[in-house]
Design brief:
alpha+beta, 8-stranded mixed sheet, 6-stranded antiparallel barrel
């Protein structure tokens, strides 16, 4: 598997929360290499194989942050609102794609600093006060754009030094790549477990895809894979995880302690580099939706270090993708061996 190409392909597909179809269809085509797959009522991509007594769910969300058109003003500028939590600080002056009747290039309007008051320079701009310029009059814009059309940040895709790569939407498409790689590793080696892969929708807007998807599956165990706050020169090192030093194993009241320890022990036994990500409450990931589904699900969280979250320049390290996949694969193989005993 070419992990770099897979990450880039997954991240290039459009799929804002509630409108994930393009990304979901591509992910479905990749998942079908390993199992039977369907798209459920809410739009989740769900695949399963095996009939063992123990049922393990692997989850990564397929949606991305973005904007939505909420109006067109008299001069043809598009009025917008957020889909999920785009970083408002970087939106002004950004290039975007408006997904109307056809993809349209646009820019988010930016008032020159010369015309801003001192107070305006200090305060950010609320998304609802932003507008997108596509260069059309109102009459022209209305031919191509409707209220409810989605907008995504335009982003580059490059390989950086140190096996790092950059793109938009690596949150959380890189985790989809992790699960696909893990399934490739264990292909043909699992006979006594039931494995379900869930590429869930609407995580960025509350986690409803994981909630309904896990409820319909009712697994015994679940591993949620998401991105974690990668280190950069400006953040407190105690609140971030380092790129290139392996996946982070989450520690939280939401997560099952024994399950978490089991993943850490696998890392030690198999020489897989790993880190800790300690959270005093909820994790802010799909693990929060999955663990209290139905009768309850023993849930663990694996996070891929990612810099510059919710921007168009998210950075990950390919070694972290491989090591996250190895950890999941080794866990599945361990559970398979226990079933043989």
């Amino acid at each position: 598997m070419d992990l770099k190409q897979l990450c880039f392909e997954l991240a290039s597909k459009v799929g804002t929360s509630g409108d994930e179809r393009e990304a979901a269809l591509y992910a479905k085509s990749e998942l079908e290499k390993y199992m039977d797959v369907k798209i459920d009522t809410l739009g989740n991509v769900v695949g399963s194989f095996g009939n063992g007594k123990q049922h393990i769910l692997l989850d990564a969300h397929i949606d991305q942050i973005g904007l939505v058109v909420r109006g067109i003003d008299e001069k043809g500028f598009l009025l917008v609102d957020r889909v999920g939590g785009p970083d408002e600080r970087i939106l002004i002056g950004s290039e975007v794609t408006v997904h109307g009747k056809e993809p349209l290039f646009g820019v988010i309007c930016s008032t020159p600093p010369h015309l801003l008051s001192a107070d305006d320079k200090k305060s950010g701009v609320d998304v609802k006060k932003m507008a997108v310029d596509i260069g059309y009059t109102k009459e022209e814009a209305e031919k191509y754009v409707e209220i409810g059309d989605r907008i995504t940040l335009r982003s580059c895709q490059y390989e950086l030094l140190g096996n790092n790569i950059v793109s938009g939407a690596f949150d959380d498409r890189c985790s989809v790549a992790v699960l696909l790689r893990a399934l490739e590793i264990v292909q043909g080696k699992i006979n006594n477990l039931k494995i379900t892969a869930l590429f869930s929708v609407q995580e960025e807007t509350g986690g409803s895809g994981a909630k309904t998807g896990s409820f319909s599956m009712m697994p015994d165990y679940a591993i949620a894979v998401d991105v974690g706050f990668g280190d950069d020169p400006y953040t407190d090192k105690s609140t971030t995880i380092s790129l290139g030093k392996g996946p982070s194993v989450g520690i939280s009241p939401t997560l099952d302690r024994k399950f978490t320890d089991e993943l850490k022990n696998i890392c030690k036994d198999k020489n897989i580099p790993y880190q800790h990500d300690v959270m005093g409450g909820r994790t802010g990931t799909n693990a929060d939706s999955i663990n209290n589904t139905g009768k309850g699900v023993k849930t663990a969280l694996i996070s891929v270090p990612l810099r510059y979250m919710h921007t168009g320049i998210e950075v990950i390290n390919l070694d972290d993708i491989e090591n996250s996949a190895r950890l999941i694969a080794e866990y599945l193989l361990k559970k398979e061996a226990e079933c043989d005993d």
